[in-house]
Specification:
The protein is mainly beta. It has one helix and seven strands. About 10% of the residues lie in helices and about 50% in strands. Strands 2-1-5-6-7-4-3 form a seven-stranded antiparallel β-sheet. β5 and β6 form a beta hairpin. The protein is elongated and about 65 Å long.
Length: about 130
């Protein structure tokens, strides 16, 4: 199987699960981190540790250029200010991937003399993942 080009990756957001998803513009890198809390269910009669997976978690982190748009970064800024949920698609190849209900947890803007204004965004995912 051929590798996927990093530039194909897209993160999209919408205000409803079935709504219109808009690309979060200006993003130069994005990371999806999925984890599961493993619970030790070993008993005295087990020779080895026995585990089952309990609660799952996922986060999406993005970094890039600040954009004053209304449909990508603007929707995220509004949701964070209003304590609103969003729906995010993380699409490694640009068309297929994962969707979650998300809560924006960070929107950080910074810049320096002689440099661009940058942005760092984080989502905490809520509920079960859906394939898209």
């Amino acid at each position: 199987m051929a590798a996927t080009k990093g530039r194909a990756l897209r993160v999209k957001v919408a205000t409803t699960a079935g709504g219109v998803y808009s690309v979060v513009v200006g993003i130069r890198s994005a990371t999806l981190s999925m984890s599961g809390q493993n619970v030790d269910v070993s008993t005295l009669t087990d020779a080895d540790i026995v585990r089952l997976q309990g609660i799952k978690d996922a986060t999406i982190s993005m970094e890039g250029n600040y954009e004053a748009d209304a449909t990508g970064q603007g929707v995220i800024r509004t949701a964070l200010s209003a304590d609103s949920d969003l729906f995010a698609q993380f699409l490694p190849d640009g068309t297929t991937g994962f969707r979650w209900q998300v809560k924006p947890s960070k929107y950080e803007i910074g810049g320096a003399v002689g440099d661009k204004v940058s942005v760092s965004i984080e989502f905490e995912c809520s509920g079960a993942v859906t394939a898209v």
